[in-house]
Amino acid sequence: MSVTAAAGEWLTCAEVARHFNVCTRTVRRWAATDTGMKVKRIGPTGFNIRIHCSELDRLSKTPTPPAA
Length: 68
Fold this sequence. Notes:
Blueprint: H1 3-7, E1 10-12, H2 13-20, H3 24-33, E2 39-42, E3 48-52, H4 54-61
Antiparallel strand pairs: 1-3, 2-3
Helix pairs in contact: 2-3
């Protein structure tokens, strides 16, 4: 599945969650616990995040995604 072609360089939590077939909360947990993940916080509170499309490849290659 190539989400990156249509979405551009930065993906929403929902797009990443659909790619891995997980809940958006799980993606937010990954972003909070994985300090190496390329994440951009958006808005005054920083609740909305965008995840770099290269993270799809990196997370796909790991045997198990980051622990929640």
